[in-house]
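Hi support team,

I submitted a single chain yesterday and got back a structure, but I'm not sure I'm reading the token output correctly. Could someone confirm the output below corresponds to the sequence I sent? I've pasted both exactly as they appear in my results page.

Thanks,
R.
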Amino acid sequence: MLKALTFMSWWMAIVPEWEGDLMDGFAEHITRFTTTMKGRWGVICDLERDWPVINVPLYVQNKIPFFYLWNFKARADTHFSRLNPTLNMTYWAI
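Hi R., thanks for writing in. Yes, this is the structure output for that exact sequence:
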């Protein structure tokens, strides 16, 4: 059930008119079910494996906590240089 609610929350966030093709009353029920969730659980991303599908702006916009694995391969890949924890900690400290 939790997976279904999580999927629906995701779907509602990425599809602007998600309730358009639903029968009367369904959108209200879905909205009520998804609002019963106490909070966002968050997302753990493996940068090397998941980078094509990671949607950081969506996570930030919907206040979904996200975490990523920072290992040697990610650190060595310039594609992920903006996600360097040391760089980010320095930025936020200033």
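A quick pointer for reading it: The two ends are 43 Å apart (CA to CA). Let us know if anything else looks off.

Best,
Support desk
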